[in-house]
Design a protein that fits this description.
Layout (H helix, E strand, L loop, with lengths): L1 E4 L3 H12 L4 E4 L11 E4 L2 E4 L5 E2 L2 H9 L4 E3 L7 E5 L2 E4 L4 H6 L5 H9 L14 H8 L2 H16 L8 H4 L1 H10 L2 H10 L8 E4 L5 H7 L3 E3 L6 E5 L2 E5 L4 E4 L1 E4 L3 H8 L4 H8 L3 E12 L11 E3 L10 E4 H4 L8 E9 L4 H4 L3 H16 L7 E12 L4 H9 L7 E3 L9 H17 L5
Parallel strand pairs: 1-2, 1-14, 2-10, 7-16, 14-20
Antiparallel strand pairs: 3-4, 5-9, 6-9, 7-8, 11-12, 12-13, 15-18, 15-19, 16-17, 17-18
Helix pairs in contact: 1-10, 1-17, 5-6, 8-9, 11-12, 12-16
The chain binds flavin-adenine dinucleotide.
Length: about 450
């Protein structure tokens, strides 16, 4: 039997592929909820996601999800329009590299930086370069402040001063190392059609439909946290509160602190490296109100807030513009992201102050004339793992698991997106299926 610990998207994907190949697989989940960070709230004609909001899938994944009976819902064309806060107002973000050069978002010297970048011959100062150091070196501070940092805050809830390029933006790093220029290398990728813009998707019924579909047919034990792993013969014994189970192979699909705890007595060095992986907190404030109350509406995907603007939230998504069936046509549905590494102090405020801060910003930037009609607050104390220097040590010690029958498939290694987690689950399952069970 193969045991998969953790029924988030990573564990579910791996278990689904193993099960489909006829492998005996048992999935253990600590809580009653299946899907980990993925969950959808549907009430009183309103629908919103409390975890991931959209999926960026490759073609094979779209086909896979459709073949499971899921209905992919593409984001509207309107949501191609993205914004960035500048001078207290949202400015449209150019959608292609050429229009950046004509946009008033960047100064003349920042635009010049793009043109001279291909001729720069400045090597990185550190072997493990941070995102901030990389972009400062190649394009300068303005690019970092206005575009890269808000993007990194939006995708990883992270701080570019601590996130590593190799962990978060490995393609850009590879391109620059290979061709000596980020701009030239990325242009080559664009021209070769390797960077075609992906459509963001949701699913009919919300993203919760994905874990529900993956779990159907699987042997799944809810409310069954695995408390200990013990070696037994060539396999492992999983200790849960009320029973224990023997597994030939074990897949760990749990957050890094849980992996550290479970591995502690066997691999103390790997365990202490895992315990060092920082997580960013994130709160979501979901606000519903009448569109007519917005004197400065933002029609599109949403807006990112650079730290230099001293905003309260990291950004706001226009849920209703992206997927119109999320609320009444006459209403707006804004999802505000408060927290991440850059805005941790706002996340840590008591609920009332957090909501006040968000509402004040909503009034300022969207020109709301009346208070929001309904509001929900969702807190994630440990939202997203951060690909910082701690990962260098983790990667060094992970080799200790080779040949032990223990495998890792989780969002703290090799990509946090749902699409990455789906892909890693599939890849690990096919590796496990290609070889005889651990002996
Ligand atoms: C607010 C937010 C917004 C996001 N937005 C997006 C987005 O728009 N698009 C996107 O692609 N991604 C997004 N992400 C990232 C993505 O949702 C996650 O990285 C991904 O869902 C993580 O999946 P996972 O299975 O690796 O981990 P998790 O979802 O954390 O699942 C781990 C599971 O392990 C279980 N577990 C823990 N310990 C034990 C134990 N001892 N025994 C048994 N079970 C255990 C947990 O209960 C949990 O169910 C977002 C994440 C957050 C938090």
């Amino acid at each position: 039997m193969i045991a998969v610990i953790g029924a988030g998207i990573s564990g579910l994907s791996c278990a689904w592929w193993l099960h489909r190949a006829g492998q005996q697989v048992e999935l253990f989940e600590a809580t009653s909820h299946v899907g980990g960070k993925v969950d959808t709230v549907s009430e009183e004609g309103v629908q919103f996601e409390t975890g991931p909001n959209t999926l960026l899938l490759n073609d094979a994944q779209s086909e896979w999800l459709s073949s499971m009976g899921l209905t992919l819902v593409p984001a509207t064309r309107l949501s191609r329009q993205r914004f960035v806060l500048q001078g207290g107002r949202y400015r449209s973000l150019p959608s292609d590299p050429l229009s950046f050069l004509f946009s008033s978002l960047l100064s003349a010297s920042a635009k010049r930086a793009v043109l001279v970048e291909p001729w720069l011959r400045n090597a990185p100062l550190e072997p493990h370069e941070t995102v901030a150091a990389f972009f400062r070196r190649r394009l300068g501070q303005e690019w970092l402040d206005m575009l890269v940092a808000p993007f990194v805050a939006g995708v990883f809830a992270g701080d570019p001063e601590t996130l590593l390029m190799e962990e978060c933006l490995p393609l850009m790093l590879k391109v620059e190392r290979r061709s000596g220029s980020l701009v030239k290398g990325m242009m080559r990728h664009v021209l070769a059609g390797k960077l075609a813009r992906k459509t963001p998707y949701s699913l009919a019924g919300g993203l919760i439909s994905l874990p529900t579909a993956l779990a159907s047919g699987l042997s799944l034990q809810r409310n069954s946290p695995v408390e200990r792993l013990e070696r037994e013969g060539s396999g492992w014994r999983l200790q849960c509160a009320s029973a224990s189970y023997y597994a030939d192979e074990v897949v760990l699909s749990v957050p890094a602190d849980e992996a550290a705890r479970l591995l502690g007595e066997h691999w103390p060095e790997l365990s202490s490296a895992l315990a060092q992986i920082p997580y960013s907190p994130m709160s979501l404030v979901v606000s519903l109100g009448a569109r007519d109350d917005m004197t400065r509406p933002l029609r599109g995907f949403g807006g990112l807030n650079p730290v230099c603007e001293t905003p309260f939230a990291a950004g706001h998504l226009m849920g209703g513009d992206m997927f119109p069936d999320r609320c009444d046509d006459d209403d707006y549905l804004i999802v505000s992201y408060v927290g991440g590494s850059l805005f941790r102090q706002h996340h840590d405020l008591p609920d009332r102050e957090l909501l006040e801060g968000t509402n004040e910003e909503l009034r300022d930037v969207f020109g709301l004339t009346r208070p929001v009609r309904r509001q929900w607050l969702v807190r994630h104390q440990r939202a997203l793992p951060q690909g910082t220097a701690a990962m260098v040590d983790v990667r060094k010690h992970l080799a200790a698991l080779d040949g032990t029958g223990l495998h890792v498939c989780a969002n703290w290694l090799d990509g946090v997106s749902v699409s990455d987690c789906l892909a890693k689950g599939e890849a690990l399952a096919s590796r496990l299926l290609r070889r005889p069970l651990h002996a």
